[in-house]
Design goal:
This protein is mainly beta and about 400 residues long. It has one helix at about 1-60; strands at about 90, 100-105, 110-115, 125-130, 135-140, 150-155, 160-165, 170-175, 180-190, 195-200, 200-210, 215-220, 225-235, 240-245, 245-255, 260-265, 270-275, 285-290, 290-295, 305-310, 315-320, 325, 330-335, 340-345, 350, 360-365, 370-375, 390-395. It folds into two domains: about 15-65; about 90-395, Methylamine Dehydrogenase, Chain H.
Amino acid sequence: MRRHRHKSMTTVRQPMMLSRIKRSNFWARFRIILLVAGIAAGILAVIFFGFPLVEDLIKGVDPSLRYQPKVEASFTHEEESVPQSIESAELYFDKKYQLKNEPYIDGDQIIFTTQAQKGVSQNLDGVVVYNTQTGEERLLENTEKKYDNFICPVLSGNIAVFLDSMEAGGGRILGYDLETGEQFLIKEYAYAPPHLSMSGDLLAFMQWAGEETQRLYVYNVQTREPVTVKLYEAAAGNSDVDISDSDMVWAEKDGKGNSVLKRVVFRSDGTSEFENYNFGNAVYGPKTNGRQIVYKTEENSISGTLMISTEGGEPTKLAEGVFDYEIGDNFVAYSKDGQIYVAYTNAADTVQLTNEITRNLLASANGNGVCYYDITDKSTENAVLDEVVQYAYVPET
């Protein structure tokens, strides 16, 4: 019996000893792996940190600067590729002039017509000139309104021009000397109100003289001399004329669907002459600054293609989907989808002047200035709200 028990005990202990030997070998191998890993990590640390550290110490550079995080804002960017921002300001009168009709900018001054005499009817019976530098407004004195409304004001230097218009058609073109306070008559008209364009001492307009007759006039506001540039018999309805210091342009129609550019250049010796540019037969509403000419390729379109030519060169597309546009000294301002854009004529930059959350309507552009309406709060067409007029000055590129 004892031998049987002793044999049984010997048989049980042998597997336990083998298990211990295996565990001992595992830990030995694990220690070797850890040692090798530690040596490798040390070598890598010397390569990545030790060598650069020695290099920094040799060069006399603070080693901590090598591992500072790189800040994107500290990088240098190419400023030439970034369009300049344009700041806008508001024409504000604390409810004094709720109506600010057709604001037109000229240098530091903005002219508009308004309701000066409060009453039941909302007739535009006053003309206001606002100074953007001082914030002062001037209601022009001694203005005589013979008909219904003062409309279409323009300004150049010390001379303002506007229409005294009848709602049924007809009226007169009036001038006003800001220095003397004198109003003077330029011309009577019997049909639709003409569109006025003014530059320097020259005022230009296309006037209907009958159902089939148009006359192109140029008037010198200083000498008070009028000139009939051209008489159109059986006219198909030519475009408005636009004038600069050195030229004037308009589109001439032939009654067969063709509309071509016409241009008169003013020479330094006081003479002028016609110049013909071949822009095709789809030129509508051309405008000029003396160097560039812009126009649309569709008539009476609320979203047309805007083309531009420099010094009579091949026209190129400036923008699509354009509602309205004006030209300044070095830019074209246009409205599209309720926003106002400024495209520089001497660069490829276009700046969105207005904010996406607003709705806007272009009013005028002249020189280096732009005027526009913010119509975001016009909840209804007949809402009696203070008209919000913004203006901005476009910097040179």
